[in-house]
Specification:
single chain, alpha/beta, nine-stranded mixed sheet, globular, binds 2-acetamido-2-deoxy-beta-D-glucopyranose
């Protein structure tokens, strides 16, 4: 009996392997430059150094394919920053007409996509080896906000000869913006507008039981992992990703519930707004790599109900900050014009936390509630109707600054 089942499993694995290499899944295995060029858009790859010697990769789509396709026109610059465990792929996986990067290029923007240290496109340092030096991974989104984002913004401004740009961030991509502008206030002046999609600073209202458990253990988990020389969150093994891609296919024999649950692990997500055909492609690009400390830092803030710097423990804090507890980020310093986008069902950027953020920021121009109750966290990138529900408003907002 067991042997029959084994045979069956092997046959299934065989079919799965064949399907894996079929053309429909090509987008899952292409990197951002190949993916974007495949659809006929120009793509430039830029390498940016940070002050602490990480090499970051930026991707740039400088013009559209169907409209605004002359590369030599002077265009407003927009910088896009992805979320936790993600990369510049977030803005293009959904394809032309759907992914925000393509839409912005067609609308006449010069589009720059950031990649934070530690993800697949920015896994390099002048002397630290991400595969063997745990020190490579001793960073959180504090460093991404203080070092990576300013370096990428300065680079984009220098290359384009501009003084200012628009910023669009999703989730952790907004956290790092608030870190940057509070710690380095002169960067406020480089921002024409900040469009914060599902902004994350305070995390007091996360009711998810997994999150709650993690907040209690994450400091110890991180310390233990680093003690054993592991600073990178273990990426999904390849077989696991492949299995995910297979079970999520339209024609998959296996029940799709399995697949939904895999995707749900990444954060809130709404089945009605999900294009099932695209799940394998999304899984091909996410998770894209992060440090243990990034998660732990969020967990610390959940527990303290504050938006503050990384907690190294009392001794470490005295050494690093000169105080027993980590200092808070001063949101009063964030003076750039801010547009906040949130939704009622978002399990990460919850309504109460958005309300608190709104009142602590001194220059909120607009708070936009997504007009669909079930809209959830990952829907800001992946929803079928993201363009009409979110992106059109973002474009209108940015264009209003150029009149
Ligand atoms: C889902 O994605 C496929 C492949 O990109 C596309 O052909 C289809 O139109 C999409 N469906 C919806 C409802 O957007």
């Amino acid at each position: 009996m067991l042997r029959v089942e084994l045979l069956y499993a092997c046959a299934w694995a065989g079919v799965a392997t064949v399907l894996c290499f079929s053309d429909t899944l090509e987008d899952a295995s292409l990197d951002v430059p190949h993916l974007v060029r495949k659809y006929g858009y120009p793509l430039e790859v830029h390498t940016v150094w940070t002050n602490d010697f990480y090499y970051l990769t930026m991707h740039r789509i400088r013009c559209g394919r169907d409209r605004n396709s002359n590369p030599n026109v002077n265009r407003p610059v927009v910088f896009l920053m992805h979320g936790l465990q993600s990369s510049s792929a977030d803005w293009v996986v959904m394809g032309p007409g759907k992914g925000l990067a393509y839409i912005l290029a067609e609308e006449g923007f010069d589009v720059w996509l950031g990649n934070s240290r530690g993800n697949v496109y920015s896994r390099r340092h002048l002397w630290l080896d991400p595969d063997s030096d745990v020190d490579f991974w001793k960073f959180t989104w504090d460093e991404i906000g203080r070092l990576d984002v300013p370096a990428m913004i300065d680079y984009a401004l220098e290359k384009t000869g501009k003084k200012q740009l628009h910023y669009i961030g999703f989730s952790q991509g907004t956290t790092v913006f608030f870190v940057m502008c509070s710690m380095l206030p002169k960067y406020n002046e480089k921002i024409i507008s900040m469009n914060a999609l599902a902004p994350v600073t305070y995390l007091t209202n996360t009711g998810n039981p997994v999150d709650k458990a993690l907040t209690y253990f994450s400091n110890e988990i991180t310390k233990t992992a680093e003690f054993f020389g592991v600073g990178e969150l273990p990426p999904f093994p390849r077989w696991f990703k492949k299995a995910g891609e297979m079970t999520c296919r339209d024609d998959a024999i296996v029940v799709k519930e399995v697949c939904y649950n895999i995707v749900f692990l990444f954060g809130g997500w709404n089945p009605d707004q999900s294009n099932k055909t695209m799940i394998p492609v999304q899984l091909g690009h996410v998770p894209a790599g992060a440090s243990f400390r990034q998660f732990t830092h969020f967990a610390q803030n959940m527990r303290s109900k504050k938006f503050r710097r990384y907690d190294h423990g009392h001794v470490g804090n005295i050494k690093t900050y000169g105080t027993w507890s980590p200092p808070q980020y001063d949101l009063q310093e964030v003076r750039a014009p801010i547009h906040l986008y949130y939704s009622l069902s978002d399990i990460r950027a919850t309504v109460n936390d958005i309300r608190r953020l709104r009142y602590e920021l001194p220059n909120v121009k607009e708070v936009i509630q997504i007009p669909l109750y079930s809209f959830n966290h990952l829907d800001f990138m992946w929803a079928i109707d993201a363009k009409t529900l979110v992106y059109d408003h973002v474009i209108k907002t940015m264009n209003s600054y150029h009149i």
